[in-house]
Amino acid sequence: MKPDDAFLSAAPHLAVAGLSRRYGAFTALDDVSLAIRKGEFVCLLGPSGCGKTTLLRLVAGLDTPDAGRVLAHGADITRLPPARRDYGIVFQSYALFPNLSVADNIAYGLTPRRERARHRERVRELLELVGLPGAEDKYPAALSGGQQQRVALARALATSPGLLLLDEPLSALDARVRDKLRDELKRLQKKLGVTTLMVTHDQAEALAIADRVVVMNAGRIEQVGTPSEIYRQPASRFVAEFVGEANWLAARRVADDVVEVGSHRLVLGQALPAGDAFSLFVRPEDVLVRERWQAAPNTLLARVADVAFAGALTRLKLAPEGMPGVTLTAELCPSMLSRQTVVPGQIVPVALPAERLIAYPEGARC
Amino acid sequence: MLNMPARRTDGAGPARPASGPDLEALLGRILPLVWVAALLLAIAFPLMAMLGRAFLAADGGFVGLAHFAEVAGSPGLVRAALNSFAVSAAATLVVVPLAFGFAFALTRTATWGRGVFRQVALLPLLAPSLMPAISLVYLFGNQGLLKDWVGGSVYGFWGVLAGEVFYTFPHAFLILATALAASDARLAEAARVLGAGPVRRFFSVTLPAARYGLVSAALVVFTLVVTDFGVPKVVGGDFNVLAVEAFKQVIGQQNFERGAVVGLMLLVPALLTFGVERRLARRQAAALSARAVPFAPSRRRGVDLAAFAGLTLVSFAIVSLLAVGVAASLLAYWPYDLSFTLAHYDFSGVDGGGWSAYVNSLTLATASALVGAPLVFLGAYWTEKLKAAAGVAPVLRAFALLPMAVPGLVLGLGYVFFFNHPANPLRGLYGGMALMAVCTVAHFYTTAHLTAATALKQLDAEFEAVAASLKVPFWVTLYRVTLPVCTPALIDVARFFFVSAMTTVSALIFLYSPDSSVAAVALVTMDDAGDTAAAAAMATLIVATSAAVSLALSALEGAVSRRKARWKSR
Q1: Which of A365, B34, B42, B378 is buried most deeply by CB count within 10 Å?
Q2: CB contacts, 8 Å: A98 with chain B
Q3: Does domain A245-361 match CATH 2.20.25.160?
């Protein structure tokens, strides 16, 4: 069955199907399937040991799967050695050759090697692209971490690969450099239009940089979606817990879209899943502090237990009345606080918007 | 601007069409197998030949344990075994505390001249084990200078013990210095803050941290002494030990079966201690976290003075044992005529091969260094870095570790049985320099392999992955990056092979022919014939050559490191 050209051009740039990898008794990757479109920036996000790096290494041909296939433009490349695939890669350690100058590092994969003048021009171009013009003759040890990362990126892009693989490229950098480089990486990727697959354990990084985020846990994909989908509608309790901050309330079923928390009844925006006991999820920024009490569904009174200043936001710890032992975290923006002062001990009305509440079946904890 | 989009549209499809067989993958699979085959031939087969010999009759029929029963029934061999055990245990009991004290003084006090003392402690490595024995004869022998100092004769238990202590001291010292240097200063500090005195700190922090080092030093010393041939050959006298017995059975009486049994008796303790030692080495490595703070001793005048005195005393003993040998080779007739002469360096009147043996030694050492170092380095590269070799790597790694468990004497015996077997097509090699070089490289393979592997492990694990993604074959990365970065380790391995080849006797004593005698073997012959002054001269030549080459290679290493500093410093 020979795929015709129409199928080939419609095929995703990169796809993995039913990919599994075991190391002894440990299953690093368990039947994972994923398709990446041309020009897309996709982040693999998850805690360490979730299989995201294993997936990247299988795509790179640095490891061989026990089952499943890797497809590039619809063609099976599962067993091809790395040198016969088409990608550039950047590792967390940068892996710059310490005895070669920046120029030699970047030109390492350029062929044929005798065309030095052409390579020099290409290196200059790339250094400009990554924001390090004039660094040709330096050695890697003379560069800062961020600069080394830029050189590693230039080296990976030197041969104009169709696919860019990034293995925790920013994790070894200081917070400030990391944020700057993150934005530059995104800009560069959009400019070149190179399909990019990045591994990270930093959810803020993934949400900020990716077109689509793949959240992984224990060798499986939990959810694939845009950053806002991942953040707003976590598909599983694991995703909800791993991405961003959240309040978790123990709840019982009352009706199809009503739960009981303590002595309060809360209405949800959608029907409850099967089961009687739930964990109710609400983001801190969705816990709304009202100026005055108005009897309305999902509104309750809470005592302010603590007020903590956190820069752009102020974080409140609230003890809702009628929910013994429960603490709600709420995040307030400065404009809200300017209308209303909040001090510890104060009783404030709090609203939990129905469409922001998501119930996950209890017992499905990861 | 960048020609990226253009390239990507024509690249619609797998990156590169598969063009012919993949040379890189092919080489990656075949080369490690070549190394496995070489190690099989150089180590495993000779050992198996020896095993076979121990269980077979001279005509090839299986006799089970008959040879063992025969050995157990011969009082001479049983006594040799007991003697071996006694002197090895005694040497261990002396050397380990002595080396521990020496290493402790060097690593835990701020005493003066620590760099010099360290070099002195390593001096015995430059000399064959016969050298201290010859010096002992000059000092305490029948015409010894200090003969009256010792109650009886130097020949026997006490002489062997003294020689072995000198010979094994640097080995124990190196292990213990590493173990002590690796301990965490934060623990000692915590103990002090909690009010522990120096004695309690020593027993609760220092000693536990070094306990693996202590056990492994003890095992190494014990094995070295059990299998050493040089010292008991010279000062053993009637005190017969297993190592000398194996030599006598095979070379003297051509009783190969008995030799094989004795070889096995030497191999078993070596294998056991090797197994225990490897396990301990792994635990020792795990005991030290990456965040440990190295201990920096501060000046305490009293302690430092005491340490200095102790270090001086031990160093004096080491230097004098070497110096006596050197002096004796330059004096007309020790101790009666102390006029200077170079006559002992004219080896024309003595057996053993003389200057041609020395030249042979140089050739052997150079060949071992030049062939062995690249061989070992590539072997380590296959096991540590080559992805295509991942399947073979564990086998190759196991074979690389095997030689450490095999005493030189046993390896030499194995070579006799394997390469001198009438049915072996390689028999022509027996008695030649080529086989001696092979045997030397095989004998010292493990230490060299571990040095190279350690250096390789320090490189970023992703170099090869990056190179592969850039479609650069592994040999280019090996040549352009791995080798240049690892040059100091490579020089280290070459130096180790050179010095080891200059000083070793144990395996070569079974392999040489009159034309291919080497300096260290000539020592045995000269000493046997009573030409002690000539033996001392030959020993001095060996030490001087080892020292000169070590210094030269250190200088080379320094030059390389300075060049490296160019890309290391900011």
Answers
A1: B42
A2: 485, 567-568
A3: no
Measured from the Cβ of residue A63, the count of other Cβ atoms closer than 10 Å reads 18
CA distance B567 to chain A (A): 5
CA distance B560 to B519: 31
B467 vs A108: CB contact, 8 Å cut-off?
yes
Structure tokens at A239: 């995703």
Contacts of A82 in chain B (CB under 8 A): 465, 468-469
Domain coordinates in residue numbering, chain A: 5-241, 245-361
Is B101 in CB contact (< 8 Å) with chain A? no
The dihedral built from the CA positions of residue A57, A59, A64 and A66, taken in this order, carries a sign that is positive
What residues have CB less than 8 Å from B430, skipping those under 6 apart? B415, B419, B420, B511
Task: Return the CATH number of B65-341, one of 3.20.20.60, 1.10.3720.10, 3.90.550.10, 3.20.20.150.
Answer: 1.10.3720.10
Task: Quick: pLDDT tens for B138-168.
Answer: 888 877 777 777 666 788 899 999 999 999 9
Q: Tokens for B495?
A: 């130096």
Return d(Cα A338, Cα A346) in angstroms, integer: 16
Burial class of residue A154, CB neighbours in 10 A (0-12, 13-18, 19+): buried
**Rounded to whole angstroms, how far apart are CA atoms A256 and A276?**
10
Asked if B570 and A141 come within 8 Å (Cβ–Cβ), the reply is: yes
Contact A160 B16 (CB under 8 A): no
B186 pLDDT band, cuts 50/70/90, is confident
Is the pLDDT at B8 greater than 50? The verdict is no
Q: What is the Cα–Cα distance from A76 to A70, expressed in whole angstroms? A: 6
What is the chain A residue with the closest CA to B486?
A99
CA-CA-CA-CA dihedral for B323, B326, B331, B332, to nearest 10: 140
SS3 for A304-343 is EEEEEEECCEEEEEEEECCCCCCCEEEEECHHHHHHCCCC
Distance CA B326, CA B333 (A): 13
In chain B, CATH 1.10.3720.10 sits at 24-49+344-570, 65-341
Q: Going by CATH, does the domain composed of B24-49+344-570 fall within 3.90.1150.180?
A: no
Residue of B197, B194, B181 whose CA lies nearest to B284 = B181
Task: Show which of residues 407-466 on chain B sit within 8 Å of chain A, judged by CB atoms.
Answer: 460-463, 465-466
Q: What is the pLDDT of residues A150-188, one digit of tens each?
A: 999 999 999 999 999 999 998 888 888 888 999 999 999
The residue behind tokens 């994790």 is A171
